[in-house]
Write a structure and sequence with these properties.
This protein is α/β, with parallel strands linked by helices. The two termini are about 20 Å apart. About 40% of the residues are buried.
Length: about 230
């Protein structure tokens, strides 16, 4: 479970502010943080991952404070930020092995991990030689490498056509296995039925609901109950 309590971060010129967000997300849930690009989507993920410290409030990962108990909490979190992948000269296998070992997992687990996905077909290819769909898959896959229990993906579907988005969803389905998955999205077309959507506006959660139909339009959300925004 990940729990945010009064989470606040004053924005810098390049980031939006997070304004006293309180919410809990149970283990195994798939959540989309929906808001325009200028909203606090990315800033919120960075706080959850422990990349930046909050001005106020806290992030709890399975009861561990991401700031005060970072050594135990951070290995439980996999984070895939936006932007180009580092180490473009590495092969897919080398890069994912590096990510897994950085989180205390062995290389043996990576082969099993790769064989669960379409990445097995490109695991000896250098990252610089991958097309956009496989780049997106590798970027997301590294967040699952190791013993991560909570996976944070920043705009994972950005730049993908419908076929690429479908392939990425298939990979996410194969890797989740009870993990908590939290993704930012600036548009709703790749949100699937059954996903929980937290709609962000002006640094806060404006709505919290479950998608009932493809596309996550406002009329398709069923208001979430006891696991939603806490008062």
């Amino acid at each position: 479970m990940i729990k945010l309590t009064g989470l606040t971060k004053t924005g810098r010129p390049e980031t939006a502010s997070v304004d006293h967000i309180t919410v809990q997300i149970p283990s195994g849930e798939t959540v989309c943080l929906l808001g325009p690009a200028q909203e606090c989507n990315t800033a919120l993920l960075q706080l959850m991952a422990g990349c930046v410290d909050p001005d106020e409030g806290s992030v709890s990962i399975n009861g561990l404070d991401i700031v005060k108990d970072a050594q135990r909490a951070k290995p439980l979190v996999g984070y895939a930020p936006q932007g180009p992948l580092p180490y473009p000269g590495m092969t897919v296998r080398e890069y994912l092995t590096f990510a897994a070992e950085a989180r205390g997992a062995g290389a043996v687990s990576v082969r099993t991990f790769l064989e669960m996905t379409e990445l097995s077909s490109v695991w000896t290819r250098q990252i610089r030689n991958l097309g956009q769909p496989f780049l997106a898959m590798v970027r997301c896959a590294q967040a699952f490498a190791g013993r991560t229990e909570i996976v944070l993906l920043d705009e994972p579907f950005d730049g993908l056509d419908p076929e690429g988005a479908k392939a990425l969803w298939q990979m996410l389905d194969s890797l989740c296995e009870g993990r908590t998955l939290i993704m930012t999205m600036s548009s709703p077309e790749n949100i699937r039925p059954g996903c929980r959507v937290l709609t962000l506006s002006r640094g806060t959660i404006a709505a919290d609901g479950i998608v009932e139909a493809q596309g996550a339009q406002s009329g398709d959300l069923q208001e979430e109950g006891g696991n939603g925004v806490e008062s």
